[in-house]
Amino acid sequence: MPLPDSSQYIPHLAFDSVVFGFSKGKLKILLMEYHATGWLALPGGFVKRDEDLENAVKRGLQERTGLEDVYLEQFHTFGTIDRFQPEVMKSILLASGAEVPEDYWMLDRFFSIGYYALLDHEKVTLTPDILSDSIAWYEVDQLPDLIFDHNKIVQKALQTLRENLDRKLIGGNLLPERFTMNELQAVYEAILGEKLRRTSFQRKMLSLDILERHEKLFTGKSHKAPYLYSFKP
Amino acid sequence: MPLPDSSQYIPHLAFDSVVFGFSKGKLKILLMEYHATGWLALPGGFVKRDEDLENAVKRGLQERTGLEDVYLEQFHTFGTIDRFQPEVMKSILLASGAEVPEDYWMLDRFFSIGYYALLDHEKVTLTPDILSDSIAWYEVDQLPDLIFDHNKIVQKALQTLRENLDRKLIGGNLLPERFTMNELQAVYEAILGEKLRRTSFQRKMLSLDILERHEKLFTGKSHKAPYLYSFKP
């Protein structure tokens, strides 16, 4: 297997994406499992020498999820010296059946620029990268140990997402285009990690004048049918 | 003049600091003026190969301001391809009287990690770096044109500072240890770019239970003397 070539990419610089989805009442993120080692990591990548940073991150996401247009936000760049663990990267590369030169660029010290993405779980088609056996959804509340400082990166992403939730009204990006008020509340509860009062949540959301109301969602029990909403364009 | 050596620093990676101070009712930042060219830029620097990112930024600030312990926050990493302007950097280096090899590392594409700092204007001792004639305070409201995307970096820093102002209660870092309520209000007004109502500002600040009240500031007109406050530890 040919490894990525150093002449194509900016050395020392990676990005890692914390991709949030929402399913069955749970907030989840995407993790890759590396060949043979079983190690888990965030989906990430490198920036091409003639590529904008944000385009590189979008390209990485598109390759893993099939989606071209997702809500994406940069939140922090990680650059401590203890991220430098060449033996870990070497094991990953060797487990992929690659020949790894001593001075190979991927074994050097890397800074990682963290992005979080919010997308509709249902729309995703998952594809592993060349170093991975699989890519799958994991519940944020029950994450396993990840390589390097990736657990810390997830926590920082989650903290930023919580801080931005009200100000940027971004929770809806985790839902299909049309949703019920209960579904929207469940997304907010999953992100904030706490239960919200139904009446005050509903009153607040309606007072912001950001939702458009559509027909009811008929389920058979029509006397209980909730309205469907979408975000105003 | 010897230029920084590529073997000491991580290539392609810089940091830029937006250093906020408050003086005479105005919010200001520090800018460096490069030799001969007259070009203005944010104070910044590079990360040593064996140095944590945040320590590099602190080192840079300490060299320019003399301060070791300042409020510092990372806000964004800038990585568009249009930042790559080797002729600009070459002019700056040549104007410093340096010999600049064609493949010199500082002429390559750079990503810049933006930090903002909040400090007490009165405590600063300004020192230019080897490429600069001067370093000085400039009013944020009346900034001149800066090199590269540095005007954009300042705007993004200011936006983040505004968004963080209430949540993190950081405005006080721009004041001396003891200050009057009017001085605190003036800082908030300068950051937000708008006038605040005195009574509601005061009520809100006192209700947060973060301020400690000290003796009055005696100015001669003792019947009008305002109280001094400090932030609770």
From TrEMBL, chains A, B:
<dbReference type="GO" id="GO:0016787">
    <property type="term" value="F:hydrolase activity"/>
</dbReference>
<dbReference type="Pfam" id="PF21906">
    <property type="entry name" value="WHD_NrtR"/>
</dbReference>
<dbReference type="InterPro" id="IPR036390">
    <property type="entry name" value="WH_DNA-bd_sf"/>
</dbReference>
<dbReference type="Pfam" id="PF00293">
    <property type="entry name" value="NUDIX"/>
</dbReference>
<dbReference type="InterPro" id="IPR054105">
    <property type="entry name" value="WHD_NrtR"/>
</dbReference>
<dbReference type="InterPro" id="IPR036388">
    <property type="entry name" value="WH-like_DNA-bd_sf"/>
</dbReference>
<dbReference type="InterPro" id="IPR015797">
    <property type="entry name" value="NUDIX_hydrolase-like_dom_sf"/>
</dbReference>
<dbReference type="InterPro" id="IPR000086">
    <property type="entry name" value="NUDIX_hydrolase_dom"/>
</dbReference>
<protein>
    <submittedName>
        <fullName>NUDIX hydrolase</fullName>
    </submittedName>
</protein>
<feature type="domain" description="Nudix hydrolase">
    <location>
        <begin position="10"/>
        <end position="162"/>
    </location>
</feature>
<keyword id="KW-0378">Hydrolase</keyword>
